[in-house]
Write a structure and sequence with these properties.
The chain has 286 residues and is α/β, with parallel strands linked by helices. It has a single domain, classed as 3-Layer(aba) Sandwich (Carbamate kinase). 42% of the residues lie in helices and 22% in strands. Strands 5-8-2-1-11-13-14-12 form an 8-stranded mixed β-sheet, with helices on both faces. A 4-stranded mixed β-sheet has the order 6-7-10-9. Helix 6 packs parallel to helix 8 (242-254). The chain is globular and about 60 Å long.
């Protein structure tokens, strides 16, 4: 019993300087549907919610930005619609953007809010349509209602953070005419991190980090820079659905976000391992 208690004390001592360092700092966490791969949704979501609540309780200011790609694809399949992707982005007609809005705002967002609020009245669900949070523009006519971020109006998020709440953001944006667009959640997370001058931007996904050789686990990149990531995208090492994540990391770090991380969301309490231990985990962009 005493050894167990000593181990717990050692963990707290190790965490203390990190708690001091990150107190009062904004951390943007992108939680994607793929982070649930390999674990039951309830277990993974519960562990993630515990991490977010603990971060909030030790003085950090977390903002959660979520995707819902697998859930959107599942509903589209049940409705008989075929999903088409180009460069990691979903081709989105008028019916598909309505499906995306239903899934993100009506299903995934409330699930995340409820998981956090099991621990107290902390989380507030927000759509990019609320208070003009995400102003969108069409990315490419061939992609339909897929948007790029034209601007972030962070006022609603800043207000919630100042009141001690944890904003949970669904990534539907609108243009100047009120037309809704589905925007890649990786892109939105990076833009919000920039707008809030975040200390950290974190992507939770279903891989342990970036690799120099895709099929070689020993080639995991522990630390890297925007210039190196540009080169890895140019030579095709980074491709497909990882491109929006990496592009967002690069843009955010160059815009002043101190660190960006790509972590394996399947690892229990991966956020706590990254933030509050000496060793860290995953890939860090600095």
């Amino acid at each position: 019993m005493s050894a167990s208690a000593a181990d717990k004390a050692a963990v707290l001592v190790e965490a203390l300087p990190y708690i001091r360092r990150f107190a009062g700092q904004v951390v943007v966490v992108k939680y994607g549907g793929n982070a649930l791969a390999g674990a039951s949704d309830d277990d993974a979501l519960s562990l993630f919610a515990q991490d977010i609540v603990l971060m909030r309780q030790v003085g950090m200011r977390p903002v959660v930005v979520h995707g819902g790609g697998p859930q959107i694809s599942d509903l589209m399949s049940r409705l008989g619609k075929v999903t088409e992707f180009r460069n990691g982005l979903r081709v989105t007609d008028a019916e598909t953007v309505d499906i995306a809005r239903m899934v993100l705002v009506g299903m995934v967002n409330p699930q995340l809010v409820s998981a956090v609020n099991v621990h107290g009245p902390l989380a507030v669900g927000v759509s990019g349509e609320d208070a003009g949070l995400i102003r969108a523009v069409a990315r490419d006519p061939e992609l339909g209602f897929v948007g790029d971020v034209a601007a972030i109006n962070p006022g609603i998020l800043q207000g919630l953070l100042d009141e001690g709440f944890v904003p949970i953001v669904a990534t539907i944006g609108t243009d100047e005419h009120g037309q809704a667009y589905n925007i890649n959640a990786d892109t939105v997370a990076g833009a919000i991190a920039q707008a809030l001058a975040a200390e950290k931007l974190v992507y939770l996904t279903d891989i342990e980090g970036l690799r120099r050789v895709v099929d070689d686990p020993s080639s995991l990149i522990r630390q890297t820079t925007p210039d190196e990531l540009d080169a890895l995208m140019a030579d095709g090492t980074i491709a497909g659905g990882m491109i929006p994540k990496v592009e967002s990391c690069v843009a955010a770090v160059r815009a002043g976000v101190r660190r960006a991380h790509i972590l394996d969301g399947r690892i229990p309490h991966v956020l706590l391992l990254e933030f509050f231990t000496d060793e860290g985990i995953g890939t860090m962009v600095r």
